[in-house]
Amino acid sequence: MLMEKVLNKLANTEYWRQSYTQWDVISYLKKYSNDTKEERRAYSALGTELRVLFKNLKPKSKEGQKVRILKRQLKELKDSVLMVMKRH
């Protein structure tokens, strides 16, 4: 469980209150986006929240390790979307 001090720095605290084992890039994006404009905002918001978590969690904690994984997954997802867009 994240400490309130860390949660207070995040916009979507409801999502981050759940167990770190439930954190997932796709579930976050689904929860916070209903259309294309909101999807872009959700990508941006998730990136921002992951940066905040990265700065405020111990890197070797289970939560800190999960944040590193999510940051990498988000980058890979963005890169693959950009590659598809460039092809069209």
From TrEMBL:
This is Uncharacterized protein.
